[in-house]
């Protein structure tokens, strides 16, 4: 039986390492912990990016970043350097890379759709805004669709794992 | 790791006992051993005895040997080195071994007695049911060796002195006696080692001289036989040698002894295996009832226990032998049996001494197994065992009542993590490499295919290939230290909760709990965190001084632990460092708990300044603020302010929040991007509080607005309003007009209510004006809070205070009620540029176009100062480069002349209302077309310059970044001048053949000098028509042909020399001039154009529309190049123009062969013309002319006597070239062209009437006919003569 993946948290981090959106799905857990995990993952991601540059790899998937306490942290970097970090509940079983990549792809798509929202810039000055601000704005609590999509993915991961 | 017996953890290696290397103390030189050692070295008279003693080579040798043997191996847990080294233990020569059995062999019952350590021996610590004790390992590592090396001195006789040969016999006897003693000593030792199968090796130390002694071999054989040593690898001889050679010796000694050592341990293993087999075969094991064991509750060891014991022993012996795989197998067997034992409370009742021992043993075996896996780089297996161990015992613990809710459990778990971390740390210090999960080994197509194949064959196992068990990914030891620290924290939590429910006395008095009370959990956690911190730092990629985020996290934990343990000052130090990164990366979620913790520390420390600082920062972030209780933070702040006094009261406490979020989000908006000097620029400053934080009770006393440069600051003072009035969400405050003046001005003061509620905004509206050009912006806003003795200043930099993640354009408040805004979508809304009013300068440019090519064309620039100031005016003119062919144009103004740019033509100072006229002269050459001129008129105000420069230099001398304040306006004009030719010229050239006789072929003159071939000279007549196209007409002063005769062309005469063209000519007028040129075509290149031999120079003036005459201009028109046509065979007929009746006239025909190569065969026939018998002809009627060679000519002359008056035609003459006819007739003769056209007599040669001849240029023959219809060629038939009576 394939291992049942349980998504504990998802974090989107901007290229300048500012948090865009952090969602936690684990019930009754300290949400702050996942903020810390997202933040500390950036260290490992930086390391991985350097390694990827050295080996001229263009892979978005950064593999297992680290395990700590009860979570395994995986990283993904979009071509535009937005980092996506997920924390899976740690079980003593093999996690297939293909499964993790599928989750990342879904999250990336959700993010892309959120950033494509033209209303993000509706109040922006004509020439003064930067794209970075747009990215951060996408995670603002005002825009609920992004959160909903991410939450749906979180739910779907658990559901798929148990169904198969 | 220190919590486990070290014996159970260290890496085992074969043990070697070394005896006989004791160095005698230097103060007792006369011990027997040293005496014997003392004797042999030759005493040199120069060396004092004491020094000899110290430098005794054998002492040195002993010391070095000891060092070499001891230094080669350190007792350590991580020792994967597989070189054949021994664990060396230095012992006395006669060290006893522990007894193998309780009873000596000679005592009765020896065979049934057991080892003193066996559980079956009542006096053993393991009696009756212990598994294995560390003392057993210690026995094998320190008390019993696998090999015994005995260092001895061999006796050496003093060197025979001369004349003492007779002592030879005595000496030999002495040697023999000593050797026997030595052998006896060795034999004694040999006896005890043989009992235990221990290899004994003797190393005899002898001087170098001794090695060369011929008797040595015999003596050695004697000693070995006497002592009963093995024949192989049991006797070595060593002389004092250098350090390096000692190393070699030690190595070879060990290599020689390694085999016996392995044999020793193998024998042990075999013995233990036999015992184990005996055990497992015995279905019912008879408990050997020991009389002492029957008492009490202790039960004898169960079979499982014996299995564990034997497996463990075998594992240890395998480890001694360096057989890691075998050891691993036995350890695993021991472990699994141990797990079975734990599974049953009957076998191992929990919370007993044996149970605790077994637990320690299980932990230690786990360490061994993990270590052995890691030696082999089996990271996943190692981790899987480690995790499995922790999981299994976690399960057991629940059953034992020490589950996850107890501090015991967490203490144990922390220890597991810590031991693992320590093992990894030791490993990484030597050989262990932590694998990196990234970049993953790039799967090639082949491996992918192989994986897919495997997938289909092996099913589930494929997941191992396509993924990774995150639980089995080895990480650096920092992670495990961190885990240990976390577990320790949990342990503390459990302990504290146990402490709270301290109701049950039996629990509080339990020994574990009493022990736990003594434990300082926080110190342990701190130590673990610190270790983790250091390791994270070590393993993080070094990025300058930027601390890694992982280390920051640990640091935060450390700070928290410090906080928990009451070391607030340490915690504050950590918080300060951590906050820096979190602020920079704007991870507010991390910053909030940190700030509150920090604040708590500051409170505990009693640092009021820091508390206030942190509270203000927390207010800015809205930390811990909730929409339900927006006043919480400000209440805290107020409480602090009212209850404490600052550290310094005479100066303000400046809270600089530039690194973090500012207290109020601000935006400065100027309505316009640019204004003129002296004009008011409207500005609004918005200050808003966070939507969930109220600042209503914080009493801001004033708000200072600081502009950049000299603008006086504005201070908004707070006036106490009615405290009950609700704070409006938007409040507009007028700060009036602010004027920037050179003189330093006092700050303006405005009063208003400075209170912010939840998410409320105060808009300060005003306007700024400056008399000087500058960039105006708001540099900072300073909020001042004065409460009791507190004086706090919070500076806010407006640009930085706008959250950069907001995509909201700044807004301009239009109306307050209801608030309506206008978005300002400009980028530069934060400042306004003040610039000088541009000068009113009127520039008009006039010229009478079009310009004529070749003339100096005047352009007038009229600059009028319509301003009210006196202005200095300068003019720059730029002539744009053109792409017209051969156009070289000049502009000139005043005394400057250039092809492109004339700079800084000063027009002087213009008073208001005056104007100046500048004349620009444009000279064009080349083709017609547009010339583009840029004219820039710069005006500079003197008056404002002096005013502006003095104050700026005096008041702000240190601002070099200011651009020079020059009040300058530039007016640009661009004109395009059409340039045309004033006169157009057209040339028409015709050519005539010379009529005079040609020099003969053989004429010597032909060959003389450079003179051209006169024979080929042609006369060209060039007709030039000049058409005036200048629209206003021109006045021509003269037209001259300037001659430039060459060898090829010579002007013979010209009509312009005599004609006078002087006068005014209007557009469309044409003038004509003819000139005759003698042209000698080049024989070699007949097609080459011959340059015209001169040019017409037309001197003219422009006539303007107002009839004024311009400057004299000269235009030249060169004569066209000439192309004289080439010639073939030609007949020239020359007849006089007029004749008188009955007077004979000559009619001369010249046949000239101008063909370059062919000769001509010509016949001439005078055709009698019946119709015109106007002449009587005398001469040749029909005849053949002599053959004409190329270049030759022949004349025939007829005499004509006119017999009729009037214009009569001369008889027609036909000249035939027979050359082609000859060819054709030859061809017909050969019968080739029989049916061709009728054979002609020959080609008719053209007859040219030289009186009329005018040939056009060869290439114009086809096209020029219509252009010059007057020129005709006549045929000979049409030669007329006017006959007069």
From TrEMBL, chain A:
<protein>
    <recommendedName>
        <fullName>Trafficking protein particle complex subunit 2-like protein</fullName>
    </recommendedName>
</protein>
<comment type="similarity">
    <text>Belongs to the TRAPP small subunits family. Sedlin subfamily.</text>
</comment>
<dbReference type="GO" id="GO:0006888">
    <property type="term" value="P:endoplasmic reticulum to Golgi vesicle-mediated transport"/>
</dbReference>
<dbReference type="InterPro" id="IPR006722">
    <property type="entry name" value="Sedlin"/>
</dbReference>
<dbReference type="InterPro" id="IPR011012">
    <property type="entry name" value="Longin-like_dom_sf"/>
</dbReference>
<dbReference type="InterPro" id="IPR044760">
    <property type="entry name" value="TRAPPC2L"/>
</dbReference>
<dbReference type="GO" id="GO:0005737">
    <property type="term" value="C:cytoplasm"/>
</dbReference>
<dbReference type="Pfam" id="PF04628">
    <property type="entry name" value="Sedlin_N"/>
</dbReference>
TrEMBL record, chain B:
<feature type="compositionally biased region" description="Low complexity">
    <location>
        <begin position="110"/>
        <end position="122"/>
    </location>
</feature>
<feature type="compositionally biased region" description="Basic and acidic residues">
    <location>
        <begin position="166"/>
        <end position="181"/>
    </location>
</feature>
<protein>
    <submittedName>
        <fullName>Gryzun, putative trafficking through golgi-domain-containing protein</fullName>
    </submittedName>
</protein>
<feature type="region of interest" description="Disordered">
    <location>
        <begin position="159"/>
        <end position="181"/>
    </location>
</feature>
<dbReference type="InterPro" id="IPR021773">
    <property type="entry name" value="TPC11"/>
</dbReference>
<feature type="region of interest" description="Disordered">
    <location>
        <begin position="23"/>
        <end position="55"/>
    </location>
</feature>
<feature type="compositionally biased region" description="Polar residues">
    <location>
        <begin position="937"/>
        <end position="948"/>
    </location>
</feature>
<feature type="region of interest" description="Disordered">
    <location>
        <begin position="97"/>
        <end position="122"/>
    </location>
</feature>
<dbReference type="InterPro" id="IPR012880">
    <property type="entry name" value="Gryzun"/>
</dbReference>
<dbReference type="Pfam" id="PF07919">
    <property type="entry name" value="Gryzun"/>
</dbReference>
<feature type="region of interest" description="Disordered">
    <location>
        <begin position="937"/>
        <end position="966"/>
    </location>
</feature>
<dbReference type="Pfam" id="PF11817">
    <property type="entry name" value="Foie-gras_1"/>
</dbReference>
<dbReference type="InterPro" id="IPR011990">
    <property type="entry name" value="TPR-like_helical_dom_sf"/>
</dbReference>
<feature type="compositionally biased region" description="Low complexity">
    <location>
        <begin position="949"/>
        <end position="959"/>
    </location>
</feature>
